[in-house]
Design a protein that fits this description.
With 286 residues, the chain is of the alpha/beta class. It has helices at residues 50-66, 124-129, 132-139, 143-152, 177-191, 258-278; strands at residues 8-15, 29-31, 40-42, 71-72, 81-91, 96-106, 112-123, 164-167, 195-196, 206-214, 221-231, 237-248. Strand 5 and strand 6 (96-106) form a beta hairpin. Helix 1 crosses helix 3 and helix 5 (177-191) packs across helix 6 (258-278).
Length: 286
């Protein structure tokens, strides 16, 4: 399924330090462990009818994506947060029910980060059949609270760094990929506690730019490559992150949706690690 597809992160390389002013040299390349996306895996709702349990999880994943948080109700990885919703429903004689859901967020280590409640009175039959509008109404008010929980759980960059990153528009993607990937990367960088410049041309310590290459279809598949460059303001390269995978031919010709969040959620932690390795000195700070 396209919505469950996550590009495999193949390589993260950093070139540390600027060359000396007279003798040009190539800085050593450090191969880092590929980071996984630290997005949110939304679990089915406990104590809910089967249809509502699934509908609520899907509605919350969508609501989190709308507030720029990578989230999925279908897939996760070792670094994903887990959002476990628990429901209680109290029926009344008039055929209505008071439905309350507590959305508990845990990090990858299993520690509770916090929780967000939502509650409404609805038709009891809608609760039993997994009505989508009911699911959306329960998820919508809790999503911004959950988003703040995951933001507060991300530590600032190591070494006391407070860099400002300018994000340039992604280029080369089919469909709405340029726009979707740019927006999603901005959100993903923010969720790693990196400050973003207001515009791509504003003064910044580092610049992030992305390009997409899509090979012609080979049968039912086509190869997609995404490359993210971390640059200094003068245009010199600090390091790059490459993502590559074969996808169903034509599957990215329209809306990228949560695929963009999956891709950028996997790449953004690598950008942060590159910045931590080179430090602000690489951007001309003392």
């Amino acid at each position: 399924m396209r919505r469950c597809w996550l590009l495999a992160l193949l390589l993260l390389a950093a070139c540390n330090g600027a060359p000396p002013p007279i003798m040009a040299r190539t800085a050593p390349v450090a191969a880092l462990s590929p980071p996984d996306s630290a997005g949110i895996y939304v679990l089915p709702v406990e104590n809910a009818p089967a249809a509502s349990a699934t509908a609520l999880a899907t509605a919350m994943a969508t609501a989190l994506q709308k507030v720029d948080v990578p989230a999925s109700a279908q897939s996760s990885n070792r670094n994903s947060y887990r959002l476990q919703p628990v429901a209680t429903a109290t029926s009344a004689a008039d055929g209505r029910a008071t439905v309350r859901v507590v959305w508990e967020l845990r990090n990858a280590a299993g520690a509770v980060v916090g929780s967000a409640p939502s509650q409404l009175v609805a038709d009891a039959s809608a609760w039993q059949r997994g009505d989508n509008q009911l699911a959306v109404a329960l998820a919508a008010p809790a999503a911004p609270i959950v988003a703040k929980l995951i933001q507060s759980d991300v530590p600032p960059p190591q070494g006391g760094l407070d860099p400002v990153v300018a994000l340039r528009p992604v280029t080369g993607a089919p469909g709405d990929g340029d726009r979707s990937l740019t927006r999603a990367m901005g959100a993903a960088l923010a969720h790693t506690n990196l400050a973003l410049a207001a515009t791509p041309t504003d003064k910044a310590d580092f610049v992030v730019t992305g390009t997409v290459e899509v090979a012609p279809a080979d049968g039912q598949k086509q190869q997609v490559k995404v490359t993210w460059l971390l640059l200094r303001p003068d245009g010199s390269e600090v390091g790059r992150i490459k993502q590559e995978n074969a996808v169903p031919a034509g599957s990215l010709d329209g809306a990228w949706g949560d695929v963009a969040y999956a891709v950028t959620g996997a790449a953004a932690p690598g950008v942060r690690r590159l910045i931590e390795e080179v430090g602000l000195a690489a951007a001309g700070h003392s």
